[in-house]
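Q: You know discrete backbone vocabularies at least as well as I do. I have my own habits and do not want them to colour yours. No explanation is needed for now; the record alone will do.
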Amino acid sequence: MPDTEVPIIEDIATQVTFLKHASPPLSAIAPGVSTDGDPAQADAWVSTPVQDAAGLAVDAATDLVDELEPAVEWREIVIPVHLHGERVDRVLSQRLTEFSRSFVQQLIGQGAIELLVPAGGSVPTLKPATRVKAGQVFRVALKPTPQSQAFVPQAMALRVVYEDEHLRIIDKPPGLVVHPAPGNWSGTLLNGLLALDAGAAQLPRAGIVHRLDKDTSGLMLVARTRACMDRLMAQIAAREVRREYLAIVQGPWRGPEFQDIDAPIGRDPQHRLRMAVVDLAHQAGKPARTTAMCLDSNEQACWVHCRLHTGRTHQIRVHLGHIGHRLYGDTQYAGPLLEGLQRQALHAFRLSLAHPITGEWLTCHAEWPADLNTALQALGLRYNETLLPALA
């Protein structure tokens, strides 16, 4: 049969017809093939076994369309008499009751809403303020939004440093976003966890209980059961999980070798994408505490051990900057640049906690990343495990 849009539900009361998206015309995916004329000949051509390269190309193109093109739901909306003269965005948002007026305006801007013309064909609706006329028919193409497709499994290589039936500890590489968000609706750690473990789909956020910034590497806790997730979140809230980091910052080190940075953090009023140390008497924020110890230092840089006692956004980056030691590679916070370093020099190297279900004490380590080791050496410092503090 020729390709058509086939109505599958018709609601006469609201004059809305739901349409199933059929396959694109053959000419759209195989421009060299003509099916003009007798539709029966087109059917015969499509149904004939492929025997030449052109046929293979058509099949491949059709498969590609099916694989890459998200499913589209088409809706046709007839304008009733009582809405004659109203704005098109207002009318369509009333008819598409599950969508907001601003979303309808986005669809108009994307060319996804067309006015069907009596002579056949259609023209795009160009402006949200366009006035409608009674009897006009608008056709709306509804594609899945990036948000709606965010929570899908996507296989990726994940380094698991600890695993049992309740819990995983992942060594997150730099550059991997933890949760889907604007600009990163796919390819996140959450997508990888959904592919790694079918049970992750039953848990909020696929079992993720805390986060690391995109360009911070190192250890993350991931629950595999709801009981474990609830207990982990309680442990983190009670500050019973010991989280330790290693950082490379601009030097030389200032002040005593060991520093306890107890300074509240809130949104930076001058740079809304940054956080900053704030005065809670005048600005919104939350208490934050980091202990920092200099492991090695020269005139260019310091190698620093940090322990989080709270978990505020960008906490280590803000606190170290507050005492005069911005992280190398941290462009968001005006940190110094270093050739070859493509991210902030921060690594979550050790996690220690009582197992949330068994109570057994766990300590996991993440290897010092190669890019940070190269940066450390370029700055005249050297990684030395004997300098790392022992567990208290």
Summary: Confidence is low (pLDDT under 50) at residues 1-70. Residues 53-68 form the longest helix (16 residues). Residues 275 and 313 are 7 Å apart (CA to CA). The first strand starts at residue 6 and ends at 11.
